[in-house]
């Protein structure tokens, strides 16, 4: 340990932790030869502290059951670090069950390792220089955060004057957890069976991740909410903000209980922790819902820019609601305007929530679910309220219903908004949107005041999303000064006057121009040339966003006519009356196959171009997609 590292990073962290309610011990003072807390350097749990906490929180527990719980939590029977970590998190947040007679016969009793209701009933202990014996070498993390004897956090400190201190700190955390080169057994995986946060700090930069986080997913905690930055002095450094916002005992336990989820992505379990704006938005929303007032005063808008994790914010909010004594029995209704978003939310909730998600499959199904006065969780598309003759009837006038709407800027106005207001007249509505509300303020007027805002500039600065760069391209499709009418005449010069009038009547001049096969042919030639020269050499793929489903199919046809053109696929929604040439691109199974192939490297799949109208424009996580070719009019929310 270097002196600058200790003086400028580790010691200030220990001082701030203690000022926020943590006790402190020097790891060298509780070594096996100097105290009875540890019998060996191999032990990572402070057994005496754990036993005392269990008896303090569960005073009725027998010695036999106490020994069983301690044995189960210290001798975890799993094969991988992720399995062990998830098992521990579930035991912490969902508790143990033991058989014991408390005077009414032998029955199952709940045992808590942490008291989430009474924060002061827990022990918070930070220890520095805590030596742990691994399989091949010892490790000595700078600071370990113990709650009731369990090592729930690790902080690695680096000198602010070192070269690449953040990367070095994260690398060291990965080594400690044996996640860098697992075959070398260079760390002590057992310590991280219990870990909930991994923090790398060099004072001026402090980032948090989980055991599954790669370097790019370690992110700063930039808001000390519910505190204000001004309370931390002038220009507080990153470490000070993180400790204040994340590691205060109350916030730390809240994060562990409500703001961590495990998701399976492509067969691999990922442990995810909330970002600061998600934590802040959920806390503000809970406060708003519990405040006095009418439905609009209890509702509001969460404007978090696209790509910042709105769906996960909804999951975290649900977890928080389900554990709040005043809100846990509410019916939760999640409405989206697209089937794809509906499916994504349903999948996310089913994986993260300990309750059944009821996905309304039809209009009658949705009506029946909304009528019931049960505290269930419903997902659906808002269009299901209009597919049949709903006649705008009141379905449930309870005020113990919360409506949460994703991408609310698209469908919550006019008749669609009226349908919800009539069906659930007393339910507060929470709107999630990624679109800045520039002029009309329709979303605010419909739902209520802003609850939280997180702009695209903030997301880019945080590294949560990438900066969007717009480049105008103009294929040889028009002569300077051409009007739409002139372009129309140019593209359809081979048509008779009667045929031209029929096209204008059916499509309008602007749409006819955008969908003109000859124009699309020129644009397709231009973008294929651009893709081959600028994008493909770097191993990336692209999407084409069109003005209509017809234009998407035409693009596919014109791309296929270009010699050696990159492989492409169309992903569009379907309609009952679609002609065969369009219907073949609306199959959901084919969509899933195409999306899976598109996400693969070019060396594994040659599918390079996805052609869409509206689908995949939100909630689509595909880092390999570097460019969108936009061939449509963009206004309001479609700009993003």
Low-confidence stretches: 477-484, 636-640
Largest sheet: 7 strands, mixed
Beta-strand fraction estimate: 15-25%
- The shape, in one word, is globular
State the separation between the terminal residues, measured CA to CA: 47 Å
Q: Determine the mean pLDDT.
A: 85
Output the structural class.
alpha/beta
Helix content: 25-40%
Read across the widest sheet, the strand sequence of neighbours is 1-4-7-8-9-10-11
In short:
With 640 residues, this protein is α/β, with parallel strands linked by helices. Helices cover 38% and strands 19% of the residues. Helix 1 packs parallel to helix 6, helix 8 packs across helix 10 (310-323) and helix 18 (497-507) packs across helix 19 (509-515).
Notes on the protein architecture:
- The structure is a single chain.
- With 640 residues, the chain is of the alpha/beta class.
- Helix content is 38%, strand content 19%.
- It contains 23 helices and 24 strands.
- The strands form six sheets. A seven-stranded mixed sheet has the order 1-4-7-8-9-10-11, sandwiched between helices. It has a seven-stranded parallel sheet with strand order 16-17-15-18-19-14-20, with helices on both faces.
- Strand 12 and strand 13 form a beta hairpin.
- It starts with a helix and ends in a 9-residue tail after the last strand.
Characteristics:
single chain; 640 residues; alpha/beta; seven-stranded mixed sheet; seven-stranded parallel sheet; 19% strand; disordered C terminus
Question: How would you summarize the topology of this molecule?
Answer:
Blueprint: H1 3-19, E1 23-26, H2 47-57, H3 63-74, H4 81-94, E2 96-101, E3 106-111, E4 124-128, E5 132-133, E6 138-139, E7 143-147, E8 150-157, H5 165-176, E9 197-201, E10 206-209, E11 219-220, H6 238-246, H7 249-258, E12 260-265, E13 268-273, H8 276-289, H9 295-298, E14 300-304, H10 310-323, E15 331-336, H11 339-352, E16 357-359, H12 363-371, E17 377-381, H13 384-387, E18 401-405, H14 414-423, E19 429-433, H15 442-447, E20 450-454, H16 456-462, H17 484-491, H18 497-507, H19 509-515, H20 517-535, E21 541-546, H21 549-561, E22 567-571, H22 580-583, H23 588-599, E23 607-612, E24 625-631
Parallel strand pairs: 1-4, 8-9, 14-19, 14-20, 15-17, 15-18, 16-17, 18-19, 21-23, 21-24, 22-23
Antiparallel strand pairs: 2-3, 4-7, 5-6, 7-8, 9-10, 10-11, 12-13
